[in-house]
Amino acid sequence: MRNVCFGVESQYDREVPSPDKSIEVLRNIARRVMRERNLLPQFSSESMRQAESISGPAASPGTAVRDLRDRLWVSIDNDDSRDLDQLSVAEPGNGGAVRILLAIADVDALIQRGSPIDQDAAHNTTSVYTVAQIFPMLPEKLSTNFTSLMQDQDRLALIIDMTIADNGTVTASDVCRGLVRNRAKLAYDSVAAWLDGRGAMPDPIGAVAGLEEQLRSQDRVAAALKQVRHAHGALGLQTLEPRAVFAGGSLRDLCPEEGNRAKDLIEDFMIAGNVVIARYLAAKRMPLLRRVLRTPERWNRIVAVARGFGDSLPSTPNAQALNQFLMRRRNADPTQFSDLSLTIVKLLGRGEYVMERPGQETEGHFGLAIADYTHSTAPNRRFPDLITQRLVKTALAGGALPYGEAELAALAAHCTSQEDNATKVERQLRKSAAALLLSGREGGRFDAIVTGASPKGTWVRISAPAAEGRVVKGFAGMEVGDRVRVELLRTDVERGFIDFAGVK
User: Fold this and answer.
1) Is the CB of residue 393 less than 8 Å from the CB of residue 64?
2) How far is CA 6 from CA 9, 10, 489, 490, in A?
């Protein structure tokens, strides 16, 4: 039980917000939690003055930039996304190979290092996506306009150039600067439905000659890249992120968002592009920020989870064996695979940023089964990607490093910490939203899966609504991955507390 002192209002005695005011209640909670987690809920006055002084996108610096506006560049993102970081295009190569070009928004061309906007971005290090409000890393005037790869607009970009054989291996790669023009802004769901044969071709595809085959070619290459990664042990996980559904300011539901073919296409290209950038900087003898996921310390528990399904894993961590187990479970029980995926994600632990010196060997990314990996493909949304962009541009042009090694090491630790804080804000807001939906249902019983079990507490997730809460009674013997029955005891919307008791 949490302590309640005399003379202090109990956390469970607060008035439950009216549903028709729920979006504003959740926004107020989001701003408070942002501050509590050392994240800025708004930009400084200096940043806003700087943003006001910017009147347009960065101009082309001339001969150092290749004019690639004639390509059939497209973006694929969420329906409502305007902070577009990446474009892609496919071109036929020799011997069945395909050349994939990725354009990454050149945010650095407009945001000078050390400027007020850069300082605010360096503090938060990431956009924070809560159920009620997005807190962008950059002012929206930039991230959704002047530094966004918007349709029918000329924009500067970093170009990742990859030649991919028909067996899915990257046989050649290069990096340069370019001027690009987005020919079609596409959305994940409609593109996925079309590729799967479940829906009509999105209108923007039919409006541009050659774009249909262009996208089908990208889809084939992405599938080949994925097949190679999985053969090397990359984990095929499927987690569901709840999306808040509002109507007239009232929270109606939390609906899990599933992956799809179009999301996979972009993910596969971005992973391949990040590998190219990491290897490019290493070849240039540059320090860089690696993105790593260390070998899991709780491998014994992962082995026990597999044993619970009548399966077996080696006694020492093995990504290929784990992925084979996951694929067997996906085929055997696809409806419950997201629950298993969540269990494995919890047991794998969190990714982190580390600074790597030239020639130094750093632990790779266990989940992706990749030794060389960085973050570089979302500079409108993540500060590590902007750091990497500046390092790449220095490698291309020569000159002094924008960051020293000691500064990069400090930034790696800071970015890891702030990413963790942002994740906690997003999780707490999901819990506050779920607590709002569950208010008045105390005493109800739910099927749940254990998502956390440690001396700090035991947590479970229910599916309707998608919500995670703490088991405060009857949790003895619960382990991550166990399926249990729980009873709702209390909710606290302000703090995002949902308390359950385990029941037989």
Assistant:
1) no
2) 8, 9, 22, 20
> Helix-strand-coil percent breakdown of the chain, rounded to 5?
40, 25, 35
Q: In angstroms, rounded to a whole number, what is the distance separating the alpha carbons of residues 320 and 327?
A: 11
Give the rounded percent of residues in the chain with a pLDDT score beyond 90: 77
Strand partners, 105: 157
Give the Cα separation of 38 and 484 in Å (integer). Answer: 35
The whole-number pLDDT of residue 9 equals 28
CA atoms within 13 A on the CB side of 94: 2
Distance CA 255, CA 241 (A): 8
pLDDT-derived band at 5, boundaries 50, 70, 90:
very low
The DSSP letter of residue 148 is S
336-369 pLDDT, tens per residue?
Answer: 888 889 889 989 999 999 999 998 888 899 999 8
Is the dihedral angle over the CA atoms 473, 478, 481, 484 positive or is it negative? negative
Give pLDDT, residue 386.
Answer: 98
- The SS3 of residue 292 is strand
Q: Identify the pLDDT of residue 11.
A: 30
pLDDT value at 19 more than 80: no
Residues 112, 118 contacting (CB under 8 angstroms): yes
Q: Give the β-pairing of 352-356 and 288-292.
A: antiparallel
- Average pLDDT value over all residues in the chain: 91
The helix/strand/coil state of 253 is strand
Q: d(Cα 235, Cα 324) in Å, to the nearest integer?
A: 9
% residues pLDDT > 70 (the chain)? 96
Q: Please compute the mean of the pLDDT values over residues 451-465 and round it to a whole number.
A: 87
Amino acid at 321: A
Domains of the chain: 1-16+439-504 (2.40.50.140), 21-279+407-432 (no CATH)
Q: How far are the Cα atoms of 86, 92, 204, 215, 345 from residue 201, in angstroms, in the given order?
A: 21, 23, 8, 11, 35
Peptide bond into 334 cis (omega under 30): no
H or E stretch at 154: strand 154-164
Q: How far apart are the first and last CA of the chain?
A: 20
**What are the structure tokens assigned to 374, written together?**
């960085």
Q: Within a 10 A sphere around the Cβ of 42, how many other Cβ atoms? A: 11
